[in-house]
Amino acid sequence: VDVKIYNWPTDLSANRQFILDMVEQCKDMGVSVGIYTTKWDWDNIVGSWNGVASLPLWWANYNG
């Protein structure tokens, strides 16, 4: 699940639920799921939240 800062609402709780719903849909479909994001994007979209911490994390590191 690509969680990047494009057009997300400002409601962090709704964003968290949307991510949970996407993850659940992937699992229901038998798709392996993980999270792709940056710290800045994640903080702005969901705040301080670890609701999907059990999933693999692929984070972007553009500073080398």
From TrEMBL:
Gene Ontology biological process: cell wall macromolecule catabolic process; innate immune response; peptidoglycan catabolic process; signal transduction
Gene Ontology MF annotations: lysozyme activity
SUPFAM superfamilies cross-referenced by the UniProt entry: (Trans)glycosidases (SSF51445)
Protein name listed in UniProt: Lysozyme
Membrane-spanning parts: none
Keywords: Signal
Superkingdom of the organism of origin: Eukaryota
Organism per entry: Pristionchus entomophagus
Family in the record: Belongs to the glycosyl hydrolase 25 family.
